[in-house]
TrEMBL record:
<dbReference type="InterPro" id="IPR006109">
    <property type="entry name" value="G3P_DH_NAD-dep_C"/>
</dbReference>
<dbReference type="InterPro" id="IPR006168">
    <property type="entry name" value="G3P_DH_NAD-dep"/>
</dbReference>
<keyword id="KW-0444">Lipid biosynthesis</keyword>
<comment type="pathway">
    <text>Phospholipid metabolism.</text>
</comment>
<dbReference type="Pfam" id="PF01210">
    <property type="entry name" value="NAD_Gly3P_dh_N"/>
</dbReference>
<keyword id="KW-0520">NAD</keyword>
<comment type="pathway">
    <text>Membrane lipid metabolism; glycerophospholipid metabolism.</text>
</comment>
<comment type="similarity">
    <text>Belongs to the NAD-dependent glycerol-3-phosphate dehydrogenase family.</text>
</comment>
<keyword id="KW-0560">Oxidoreductase</keyword>
<dbReference type="GO" id="GO:0046168">
    <property type="term" value="P:glycerol-3-phosphate catabolic process"/>
</dbReference>
<dbReference type="InterPro" id="IPR008927">
    <property type="entry name" value="6-PGluconate_DH-like_C_sf"/>
</dbReference>
<keyword id="KW-0809">Transit peptide</keyword>
<dbReference type="InterPro" id="IPR013328">
    <property type="entry name" value="6PGD_dom2"/>
</dbReference>
<dbReference type="GO" id="GO:0005975">
    <property type="term" value="P:carbohydrate metabolic process"/>
</dbReference>
<dbReference type="GO" id="GO:0009507">
    <property type="term" value="C:chloroplast"/>
</dbReference>
<keyword id="KW-1208">Phospholipid metabolism</keyword>
<dbReference type="GO" id="GO:0008654">
    <property type="term" value="P:phospholipid biosynthetic process"/>
</dbReference>
Amino acid sequence: METPLMDLSSHSPFFTPKNHSLYHFYPSKITIPTLCCPNNPTTSLRRFCADTTPPEDIHAAASDSAPERTQNRRRIVRLAWEKLVRWSRSWRFKARTDVLERTNKVAVLGGGSFGTAMAAHIAGRKPQLEVNMLLRDPQVCQSINDTHYNCKYFPTHKLPVNVIATTDAKAALLGADFCFHAVPVQFSSSFLESIADHVDPHVPFISLSKGLELNTLRMMSQIIPQALSNPRQPFIALSGPSFASEIMNKLPTAMVVASKDKKLANAAQQLLASSYLRISTSSDVTGVEIAGALKNVLAIAAGIVEGMNLGNNSMAALVAQGCSEIRWLATKMGAKPTTITGLSGTGDIMLTCFVNLSRNRTVGVRLGSGENLDDILSSMNQVAEGVSTAGAVIALAQKYNVKMPVLTAVARIIDNELTPQKAVLELMGLPQVEEV
């Protein structure tokens, strides 16, 4: 972070017409350059001089002893931190809303790991809040209601007592102020059509599902309103680096809520934000959804590299290339490049590609180790969305005329058109081109 530079008069040895535009003149400000080279006397001097040092005493300050310079530096850092804390408190005060106070009931569609984690998180925000989980498994439903444990996904994490499970769509949705959608993408359309009669046309849907519908290439922002036959159904996408188990353990992280309606995004932010969950807002729904979908495919590729023991160099090169491919496609679809480098892009990609808790990465590791895809999927109790989404990558690449060699290779491996070994040889044999 860079604070305004100190006032340097025209007779200062550091003032020249050539670099005059680099300086901003604010009296009584502290100098903290963004970049500092210890071997550069100009940078060091600017860094360690406080606002109390007049220009004519700059040379004298340069001869200060090392302990004095260290003391000055620490004082500058402390003051900068205190200023940040004051700004943060002021911002929180201004941003207060009564969204949480006005929310009495939340519905969560789906009882998988992430749906359960978000239900627990929301329930913990307000003890009086009723959180209804709509499930299809009567056994899991009974487990949550009788013992407050999800026996299938979180058998050791006790849920708040205000989390209620039901298999009755009408009971779950009636009177809900917000609805969290946590059903896998490939099953979402048929599921939503089956409960459409019970959905309030004004209730905001917060989508936790990441992926693309295989045959139609639709994102959740398209699937939800079309399945509910309501093009005006309020929609929010939630994404970012967030494993369900760590949310259950209340470990700190940050996520993004994206909506074309700024007020709606702000409302979701206030509903979700807590001491261990930071929530940023965005209007770039396309960027958030595309990054969230394709990072699962890239995670399979990263897992394949790990399973084949190709080393750290290969891993870094592959993930960097995959990030570029996601950016190329997303921007062609109208997304902002900054979204792809943010929490829902790079943040989620790093988590999914490099951590063993990732379902998609696990699929890739087992593929790279030589296992059969059908055997891998049949042994998993959760859906790896990247397997289905990979099939949509080639169609999207063709539709938007974008070359995506890494993600396309994953799709071909899943379709048994390439072995992981052959895919590596083909990727390494591509033309040497300029980086874009």
